[in-house]
Amino acid sequence: MKDAYRHLKWFFKIEYKKYLLLAILLLALSITPALPSKVLGMAIDDIASGTLSINRLLFLVLSLALIPIVRYFIAIVYHFHINRLGHKLSYQLREKYIDHLFALDAALYEKYTKGDLIARATNDLQNLTVLATSFLQIVVFNSGMVITAIVMMLVIHPLLTVASVILMPVAIFWLNKKRQKKRAYYKIHHEIYADMQEKVLESIEGVKAIRAYGQEDADFEKTKKAIDEDINSWWKILKFESIYGPLFEMVYAVSYFVAIAYGSYMVIKSQISTGELVTFLVYVGMLYGPLVALSNVLNTSNNIIISDERFYEIMDLQPEVKDEVEAQPILSFKTIEFKNVSFKYPFDNFHVIENISFTINSGETIGIVGPTGAGKSTLIRQLLREFNITGGQILFDGVNINRLKMEDARNLVGYVPQNHVLFRRSVDDNILIGNPKASPAEVASAVSLADFKKDLKELPLGMETMVAELGGSLSGGQRQRLSIARALVKNPEILILDDSLSAVDALTESNIIRNLKQARSGKTNIIIAHRFSAVAEADKIIVLQNGKISAIGTHLELLKYDNWYKMQYLNQIKGDRYEEL
Ligand code: ADP
Fold this sequence. Notes:
Blueprint: H1 2-14, H2 16-31, H3 34-49, H4 54-103, H5 107-111, H6 114-132, H7 134-156, H8 158-165, H9 167-205, H10 207-212, H11 216-268, H12 274-315, E1 335-343, E2 353-361, E3 365-369, H13 376-381, E4 391-396, E5 399-400, H14 406-411, E6 413-416, H15 427-432, H16 440-449, H17 453-458, H18 476-488, E7 494-498, H19 506-519, E8 524-528, E9 540-545, E10 548-553, H20 555-558, H21 564-580
Parallel strand pairs: 3-8, 3-9, 6-7, 7-8
Antiparallel strand pairs: 1-2, 1-4, 4-5, 9-10
Helix pairs in contact: 2-4, 2-7, 3-4, 3-12, 4-6, 6-9, 6-12, 7-8, 7-12, 8-11, 9-11, 9-12, 11-12, 16-18
Bound molecules: adenosine-5'-diphosphate (ADP).
Residues 110, 345, 348, 352, 370, 372-378 line the site of adenosine-5'-diphosphate.
């Protein structure tokens, strides 16, 4: 719990004045419920002794009416402010969390699932907010109520007070001991919940593929299993609470019985008045709710501790790829040299690319070809600095990429990935992600370079057409052209097309490549392609096989001797001729 407080200290520091005010209001709210019973006791005693005058009655009745009205207004102010604080905190925590997720590198997404990351930002974050809002309220309000009631009871009769309440702390202590085991289970429960969230997310995201393969029933079974596991896990917790929760009620009933029996005896013996006994019994009645709430505080704090651990497990992660203290800016370059570059993914134990050496001169068009899984994407994505390379160096004009400002290095690149990431926004907004400051003329030019202009006519609202989630409403080719337009609007120093022309026909492909060559003269293009016509005119073609460069040269140079490129090229033109026939 100390850690959770430490983590939220910054918020308490900023909002301490509001918390002080709220604490005073809470105290007022917890003390005032004791007042009506006091008034009631006074009225009963006045009636019993026959001293109740009209003025006195008026005073007592007015007091009784005024107390709830005052309480009502205090409660309004209190709830308004505490809820605002809660929202403010969860908003700020969520903002920090999202910022942090952006700052972390790709390794995070290899380790944690989306469902888990969402559960931490929702369920766990909500529990943390409880610490800054209702947790304080439960502790202050209920402690205030308990202390007030016990002090008032002690004033009436100390011995009667001790006899009536002695069983309660014993019961709470015992109950908490029992609950300790269950608390350890909460951590497992949070993991089960995150798994369920992931499964549901996967089913929603994959709904089209599931339908296409007629896997609805099988997927439903899997999702249902995950949901059932979550429910069963809750069930375990609830079963425990159902058995042990009402135990306190029994103990309370015994205490109440002792108060009535022993209190009545005292009235008979004239040690206390009838009015005092009635007041006393009301106080005992007041104890039940707060004591149950306080006995649950350990449960709540246990939940908060686990959620705090889970939330800050992510927040405490440090990105492996980060700027050095004196990172150098970079806006352009003359050469990029890959020098014996090797790389393995964080959770793999083999190198995906090994000992890769080649040079890219600014303004060149580089083609990269090779069998699927050869490591082409992995090789070129190193320019995006998603991970640190595990061997060798990538040098920009002789400066190691690790020493360059990460943001600058990434800004040099416009990357069109294989899996196009499109957002649920208009076509226009999807393109502007590449460069939010682009003018309409720049957007129009990117659209025509990407050969996307012809698609706009087919879209119901042209540039204003909403793109469905993950680009679901567009054809594969349209998605590719839109992604290319997005990269082009950035006018990057290096444009990477990572197998981005696979879903377009040969004519569109040659249109795009011709456009690029003209419009991007002086800038660098890197094209990964399966169809060799896309790279035939490149200044340099790199052939990658099994993570190693097996050949390098221009199209004509590569055709001069037997190699994978020549063999595949001949196969492809044979296929093309066959298609033409
Ligand atoms: P290509 O682009 O040539 O098809 P990739 O670079 O995509 O090849 O993949 C090369 C190898 O790296 C494959 O064996 C693939 O399974 C593996 N790989 C790709 N991405 C990841 C990743 N994020 N984590 C672990 N392994 C990966």
